Amino acid sequence: MQKIDNSVPYRLIYSLGEHPYLGYLIEPHIVQLNSNGSDSLSYKRVFTNTVDEFKSALDEDDYKIIKLLDEIEQTHVIKRFHKKAIRPMDYFSKVFDQKLYGYIRPKLDQKMLKALELIGNKPLFLMSKKDGYPADQILKIADQPTSILFHFRRNEEETRYFPTLKYNGHRMEFMFKNAEVIINQQAWLLLENTLYHFDQPLEGKKLSPFLNKRYIAVGRTTERKYFETFVTGLIEKHNVYAEGFDIKTIKEDAIPVLTLNYVEEGESHLKLSFTYGDYSFSAGGEHKVSVRMLYESKEDLYTFIRIKRSVSWEEKQREILHVLGLKKLDALFGSYITDHGKSIFSWLNENQNDLLEKGFIIQQETGEKSFFIGKTSLDIEVGEDNDWFDVRAFANFGPYKIPFIQLRDHILNRIQEFELPNGEIAILPEEWFAQYEHLFHFSVKKDMLQFNKAHIGLLHEISEHTALTMSRKLQHLSNFEKIIAIDPPLHFNGQLRPYQQAGYNWFHFLQEFKFGGVLADDMGLGKTVQTLAFLQKQKEDFKSTDHAKTSLLILPTSLVYNWQKEADRFAPKLRILLHTGSNRFKDPYAFSHFDLVITTYGIVRSDEAILGKFFFNYIILDESQNIKNPTSKSFKSIKTLKSKNKLALSGTPVENSVSDIWSQMHFTNPGLLGSYAFFQKEFVVPIEKKKDEEKAQRLQAIIKPFVLRRTKNQVATELPPKTEQIIYCEMTEKQSDMYETTKSEYRNALLDGIVQQNGKTSQITLLQGLTRLRQLANHPKMVDENFDENSGKFQAVLEMLESISSEQNKVLIFSQFVKHLQLFKAHFDKQKIKYAYLDGATKDRADAVQNFKANKDTKVFLISIKAGGVGLNLTEADYVFILDPWWNPAVEQQAIDRTHRIGQTQNVFIYKFISKDTVEEKIVALQNRKKSIATALITTEESFVKSLSPDDLKELLR
């Protein structure tokens, strides 16, 4: 090797040489050219990192070839297969052996094959064995492939075996010609300076024995084993000519066969095979040709049956299974399982007809059990009586029609194997356990499928999975979303919005079919109005033949007077009895003189015996989440009451847990959700602990006809931009006593002062007295820190906050008393409820506002009117609570405008909390009377108080 002068002409050549240990390899060399253009004796071995100085002699393919040849050069091979640094001589003399050669050479062969493919017509030489000169003898790559035919000649003594080669239509002599196999993996043969390749996959070692040998002889004593292994394999892959035994080629139309392999405690699967005539092959085999050997001992005749397999057709059959939802379990043996966890039996049931139409044969492995693998289906019909449904169901297993009730124990105990009359074992589809288990749980009887009418939701669910047939009346019931419109009552003051009319219609639907229900509209959507309209209609439709006309409304104490006020406004014809206070009726007969009896959860607990003696038309629970605990005294007391119909109203029927709905459903539709223990096990645990979507959907299907819920967003277009409502709160007993005592003291003092001073009483004293009364109306703790009981208003606000927070809405709470806000602040801190806070002492207003706006968990903003009445934009809130009435309505309006302003996309609900029978109630009335003053630009309370006459004062303190 000499230095190459790249200023003088040169060229790149490839040189085939034999490495003493690694076998034939190709090397790239740059050869200096003589002045006449011939190759000189100067050359240089080049690598990827040294060839760039000669790049003028290279094209794109050359770079690829050189990179490949780098990887088969001896130093690269040693580094790849030997971790420690070692000299080549030491590696090959001390480490390298035949085993390593057998591992390394196939990898080198792969690189050689790629290199030869790229070299094509480029200069290729045979390296000199004497001095390693790379351009010794020019080599040519044959321009077309060579074919090979293997010959067998069997006679009475032996079988001779040899190959013949044919190139360009002529037999090629290669034996005893110094030919060499240079690549084994896919044979390349070097003969007389030409490299020959072959038209079929051929290992070089099948040629090597015949380079210097005419044939191989196999004696009679060992021929059978030789035929079974070597000859059979050779016939599968190559063209073979035989004398002394037969080779028969058959080409049959194939049949795809699926064989069921049942595994008792594992995953059953299917095996795919292909039958060609009398021969069957696993789908895992990749050979285009399969060979079977037969031997007739009498005639001493070997016959090889050569079956040509349609590889592309077989692949199409595999693709059919893939499209239908199977995936390979074991590619070698053609085993398949379902792709989505479904059982093989369910898959076969669904796809059997399709498979048979496509020519598949379905069979099973022989064993102790014989399985039914025919079509499985379920037919369900539903008959209707007055109060229950009859479900007539049959399970069809091929020709067998089995009453579904016979599968009761199997379904409830999840036993999949069911023995058919012919002794075959049917595997019940897994979906039957999930879809129909509840039919047996909720069935009234064990020997037949009979259901309470309230379980219409179960029938909705199963109708999605079966060809369920229903009577026309039952079909009407099942389409409960298309409810008949009912005319509003004649004596109803007001106009029901479209969604309220729908709720009113729904109440009638429930009554027609003797169901109870839960109206679960968002707070502010008018559950009270819908119910009052319905109760007024009940009064107007009452017939003397009806057994019951009086309805009972049970609610939290804080809502008693709101209902009374709303009833006076919308349904003044309703005769209402407030069954509250210490002077309430003790004789249940008195209830019959009224259309509606209003009472509280607390009184129901006390008067359970009295109320339990009366049969009501409706029992209606407002804020029905109050009975969510089935072990509570309220729930137990209410369950003893009797009525023709039942309704529940709640903006938050599910507050904390799925289990909250059970007691409300049990009240409205007893038995609908089974026992509480069953409900916990079957629904609560799977839904809450395991996030079981299927169970959640089933529960929804069961309760759907009996729960009507509309959110603010759903009915936004039907709502006015701003809805205001006064919430009247009843003071607690101790709170009321403190208020009356204080009022008497100021009343006497102030009125005496008016008389004595001819009406010119001290404005300061008057303001002090009114302020103290307003504080007591809010919470006595604002006046007396040691007051240890609750306030009616405080409790009412918390109850409404709970409803709003469950709807994920935000609320502004305004008060002109910082002390009042701090009571809520202390409560929120104790309960770990996130809130924002702003009063006159707040240093960082922007931080408080940002906390409320940006933090989705901060749903409450406590604001004092002086600090936050103006200058804030809080459109994130869609509820405003005004905790106390202000003398100046314009100030109230400023507070409301914090949220009801440009940028607000939602409807805003304003709730004003007024303590009943207090100065607050009188301030509201006074505001209405003093409209001229209210509309004026009044900025101080003093200016309003100055305008009050002695009669106004007397009214305030009456």
From TrEMBL:
Cell wall biogenesis/degradation found in the keyword field: no
Record's keyword annotation contains Hydrolase: yes
Keywords from the named record: ATP-binding, Helicase, Hydrolase, Nucleotide-binding
Superkingdom of source: Bacteria
Helicase ATP-binding domain span: 508-671
GO molecular function, one term: helicase activity
Helicase C-terminal domain location: 796-949
Pfam families reported for this sequence: Helicase_C, SNF2-rel_dom
Protein name (Swiss-Prot/TrEMBL): DEAD/DEAH box helicase
